Amino acid sequence: MKFSALSTSVLAGLATTATLANAAQMPSCYPDAPKTGILSPAPKTKITLGKPFTFFYCSDTYFRGHTDTLTVVLTDRNTTLDGAIVLTANAKPNNSGGQAYSLNLTVTSSYMGKNASLYLGAFELADTYYGTRSFTGFQPVQIIVPPGSN
Fold first, then answer.
1. CA distance 55 to 44
2. What is the pLDDT of residues 80-121, one digit of tens each?
3. 104, exposed or middle or buried, with CB in 10 Å at 0-12, 13-18, 19+?
4. Which residue of 42, 89, 97, 127 has the smallest Cβ count within 10 Å?
5. Distance (Å, whole) CA 41 – CA 77
6. Coil/strand/helix, residue 23
């Protein structure tokens, strides 16, 4: 998967780190719970530069299907992954049912110099009954840049 170069200065210079979150904190995914997609952070959550946040994602694959990988990005649009900054690429599901992703992500540096309204994007590759498919979802977030952090 290729993401094109960023075209806006708002995203320039962001860097991130990612680690697996505690499996005990993971939400229930299909078929135990009806919600799928980005479950956390909630829409319009404030994410502070340099502080980790938990990212939960539930795949909606079912019946002879399973999720393969998830790439999480930060973007200034909710319609495309073009120009996105990759927070973590090709993460594997981290539950026994293979439906859930739980990651600790951190935006670690920025040249933004100000707070920004952006979107977390999730790009999932899944093997389904009908073959390999991709799914994309977006969640609006607010990036908070503390004074003196750039």
1. 14
2. 888 888 899 999 988 766 788 999 998 876 545 577 899 999
3. middle
4. 42
5. 17
6. helix
Neighbours of 6 (CB within 10 A): 17
Task: State the pTM of this model.
Answer: 0.78
| Ramachandran class of 23: left when φ > 0, alpha when ψ lies in -120 to 50, beta otherwise | alpha
DSSP for residue 16: E
> Residues 29-34: what's their mean pLDDT?
66
Mention every residue, 6+ apart, whose C-beta is less than 8 A from residue 25: 54, 102
The pLDDT, as a whole number, for residue 7 is: 31
Query: Domain locations in the chain?
Result: 24-144
Q: Among residues of the chain, what percentage have pLDDT more than 70?
A: 73
Please return the burial class of 86, using the count of CB atoms within 10 Å of its CB with bins 0-12, 13-18 and 19+: middle
Residue range 24-144 in CATH 3.30.70.100: no
133 three-state secondary structure? strand
